[in-house]
């Protein structure tokens, strides 16, 4: 077994590999760019080596720098993680030439299956059903348009060396093919150093299901069940689960055996994933094979009890698999949410900045429920525009699907992040969505269920009662602290009942609060004269903590809390509901109701940058007439290009930026007359 390995990656996957290596008694070496000098993976590793400037093309993608770091530290093997160099046969070959073991498949398997075009050719040769499309490299826009017309719309434009939704576009017309082709090539070049793209038929209303395989260097290959990854946005997976609510045992076996046969045809020898597009009728077609560890591997680990990173290391060291197909059992259900630095209220655009608070839920195994958090950040860390916006992967496992979903919702509510925007509000709302809970999924789920973008749910029912009780308890605590600080606490004051009005986004609820030991009793008064509702609230929460955790009538509850810096009150979030909560006496509540609403500035004649990013191009000039839908500018953030289009007809009066400029969120790009 190896004594020391190097991880040629960053963030949560580097930390994930380090954890397993540490458990196996293997020392680790981290590599880092200048932007990552204070990163968590650098802190966790036994040694760390600087490999270049922040851009990945000058650091994490430079093979010579990685090899030099391995030689300097005496690392015998290198784990590539996912992304970056993980599916580059040239990297595996370079390591081989330098006497360093690649913890992944052999270069021949990567060449045959890591390349999406070559993998489809290999699948066709092995009589595996594939999605109709063009398997050749497309040279220019004209050829792309011609091929798309022959296949029939809609089509999918995909980067040959791609992954993670990078370099991928869906096109429904010739214009969208032309724009998507250019954008896919550009993203592919930036992310993978390979701008080849191909086109295939886009299957509408599909489900995305993948089979995890594992092989060794002695000819043994097994499959470890499936994952469903149908909840996607911009072709990027957001939520994954194992097993799939679609499959039955016969379909699972058919997909697994087909995956093993395909892997055997290329002599595959590591962890890998065979991806399929599946119809609602359980029909399935081979899409591609990822010759690496997948982002969503934790759900497979939790339902099988198999550490995939450990198996990869053991296989690379030449050990034979000790697990046989008959040993693989799927137990319970696992759900994974990808927590991203992005603003769900602004069409999920990237957010960068410092994590002023980062308080994930505790990792626990209790009462049949497992909570796991794979992360690569710490409080005070910086979310950089140079890399993927993933903050963490929150995974829950339970005895069945609904138990895992319920645990996921509770864990998301208990996840406190401040300093940047994040997608936890969307994820918590998703866990409550009836269609998701029913397992009625497709890759178009988010677009279909949130056609106008994401907006927080309005509080009602039990969730509204929960937020009212939490707001009242916080107010009671704050008032108590104020009286103690000002020496106004009188005998009996702690038990004196107080009448207050709780306003959730302005909607008033009259309550009466009183103390009873460590608890606060919140009596919700019925304005119609009906019977009041009593809630018993207990918590150890203190002002300044980003997550309120406690019990309401014996039920465990977590609510995200953020004090408003420029106003009275708190922002509360729970189960996808986000509200501005204030608590006042009756007279102040009456006065607040008469306050005029603040007028929002008119920005309809400006194109604002929707997220921090780099200007790739400006497509118009001053004095130019533009039509609705016409491209105005392209802005890149976190390796994704975003095309900004005109929302209406107009004339450009002023252009404020140029290609290459770095912009903050809401920076003015151009103005209209």
Give structural notes:
The chain folds into 5 domains: 4-103, Rossmann fold (3-Layer(aba) Sandwich), CATH 3.40.50.20; 132-201, Dna Ligase, domain 1 (2-Layer Sandwich), CATH 3.30.1490; 345-455, 2-Layer Sandwich (D-amino Acid Aminotransferase, Chain A, domain 1), CATH 3.30.470; 461-593, Glycoprotein, Type 4 Pilin (2-Layer Sandwich); 606-672, RNA polymerase II/Efflux pump adaptor protein, barrel-sandwich hybrid domain (OB fold (Dihydrolipoamide Acetyltransferase, E2P)). The termini are far apart. Residues 491-495 have low confidence and may be disordered. The strands form 9 sheets. The protein has a 9-stranded antiparallel sheet. An 8-stranded antiparallel β-barrel has the order 25-26-27-28-29-30-31-32, surrounded by 4 helices. Strands 3-2-1-4-5 form a 5-stranded parallel sheet. It is built from 17 helices and 40 strands. Strand 16 and strand 17 form a beta hairpin.
Class computed from helices, strands and strand pairing:
alpha+beta
What general form does the structure show? globular
Domain count, please report it: 5
Per DSSP, the total helix count is: 17
C-alpha Rg, in Å? 27 Å
Q: Which sequence of strands runs across the widest sheet? A: 14-13-10-11-12-15-23-21-20
**pLDDT averaged over residues:** 91
* Biggest sheet character: 9 strands, antiparallel
What's the architecture of the largest domain, going by CATH? 2-Layer Sandwich
In whole angstroms, the N-to-C terminal distance is 69 Å
Q: Considering DSSP H and I runs of 4 or more, what fraction of the residues is helical?
A: 25-40%
- Tell me the name of the CATH class of the largest domain: Alpha Beta
| Percent of residues in beta strands | 25-35%
CATH topology of the largest domain: Glycoprotein, Type 4 Pilin
Q: What's the total count of β strands?
A: 40
Query: Poorly predicted ranges (pLDDT <50, ≥5 residues)?
Result: 491-495
């Amino acid at each position: 077994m190896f004594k020391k390995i190097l991880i040629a990656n960053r963030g949560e996957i580097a930390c994930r590999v380090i954890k397993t290596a540490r458990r196996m008694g293997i020392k680790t070496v981290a590599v880092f760019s200048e932007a990552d000098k204070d990163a968590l993976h650098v802190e966790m590793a036994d040694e760390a080596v600087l490999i270049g400037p922040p851009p990945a093309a000058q650091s994490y993608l430079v093979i010579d720098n990685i090899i030099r770091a391995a030689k300097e530290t005496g690392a015998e093997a290198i784990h590539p993680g996912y992304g970056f160099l993980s599916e580059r046969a040239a990297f595996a070959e370079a390591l081989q030439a330098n006497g360093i073991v690649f913890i992944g498949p052999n270069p021949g398997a990567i060449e045959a299956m890591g390349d999406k075009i070559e993998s489809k050719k290999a699948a066709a040769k092995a009589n595996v059903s594939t999605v109709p499309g063009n398997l050749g490299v497309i040279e220019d826009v004209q050829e792309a348009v011609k091929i798309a017309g022959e296949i029939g719309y809609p089509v999918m434009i995909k980067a040959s060396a791609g992954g993670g939704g990078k370099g991928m576009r869906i096109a429904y017309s010739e214009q969208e093919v032309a724009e998507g082709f250019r954008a896919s090539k550009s993203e592919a070049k930036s992310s993978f150093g390979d701008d080849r793209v191909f086109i295939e038929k886009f299957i509408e209303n599909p489900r995305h299901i993948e089979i995890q395989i594992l092989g060794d260097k002695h000819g043994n290959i097994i499959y470890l069940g499936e994952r469903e990854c149908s909840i996607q946005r911009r072709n990027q997976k957001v939520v994954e689960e194992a097993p799939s609510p679609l499959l039955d045992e016969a379909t699972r076996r058919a997909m697994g055996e087909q995956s093993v046969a395909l892997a055997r045809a290329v002599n595959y020898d590591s962890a890998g994933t065979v991806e399929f597009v599946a119809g609602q009728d359980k029909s399935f077609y081979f899409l591609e094979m990822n010759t690496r560890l997948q982002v969503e591997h934790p759900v497979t680990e939790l339902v099988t009890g198999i550490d995939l990173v450990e198996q990869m290391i053991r296989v690379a060291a030449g050990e034979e698999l000790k697990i046989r197909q008959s040993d693989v059992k799927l137990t319970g259900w696992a759900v994974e949410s990808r927590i991203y630095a992005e603003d769900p209220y602004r069409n999920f655009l990237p957010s960068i900045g410092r994590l002023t608070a980062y308080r994930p839920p505790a990792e626990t195994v209790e009462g049949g429920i497992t909570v796991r958090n794979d992360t690569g950040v710490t409080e005070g860390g910086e979310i950089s525009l140079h890399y993927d916006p993933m903050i963490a992967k929150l995974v829950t496992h339970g005895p069945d699907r609904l138990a895992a979903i319920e645990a996921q919702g509770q864990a998301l509510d208990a996840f406190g992040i401040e300093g940047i925007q994040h997608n936890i509000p969307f994820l918590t709302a998703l866990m409550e969505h009836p269609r998701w809970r029913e397992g009625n999924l497709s890759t178009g789920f988010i677009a279909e269920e949130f056609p106008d973008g994401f907006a927080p749910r309005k509080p009602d029912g039990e969730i509204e009662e929960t937020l009212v009780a939490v707001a009242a308890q916080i107010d009671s605590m704050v008032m108590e602290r104020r009286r103690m600080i000002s020496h106004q606490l009188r005998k009996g004051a702690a038990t004196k009942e107080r009448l207050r009005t709780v306003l959730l986004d302005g909607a008033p609820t009259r309550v009466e609060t009183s103390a009873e030991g460590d608890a606060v009793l919140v009596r919700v008064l019925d304005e119609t004269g009906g019977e009041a509702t009593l809630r018993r609230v207990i918590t150890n929460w203190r002002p300044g903590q980003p997550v309120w955790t406690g019990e309401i009538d014996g039920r465990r509850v977590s609510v995200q809390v953020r004090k408003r810096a420029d106003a009275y009150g708190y922002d509360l979030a729970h189960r996808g509901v986000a509200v501005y909560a204030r608590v006042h006496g009756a007279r102040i509540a009456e006065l607040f109701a008469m306050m005029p609403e603040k007028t929002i500035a008119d920005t309809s004649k400006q194109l604002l940058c929707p997220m921090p990013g780099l200007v790739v191009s400006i497509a118009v000039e001053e004095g130019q007439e533009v039509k609705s839908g016409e491209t105005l500018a392209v802005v890149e953030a976190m390796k994704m290009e975003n095309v900004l289009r005109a929302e209406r007809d107009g004339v450009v009066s002023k252009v404020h930026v140029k290609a290459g400029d770095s912009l903050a969120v809401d920076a003015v790009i151009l103005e209209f007359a």
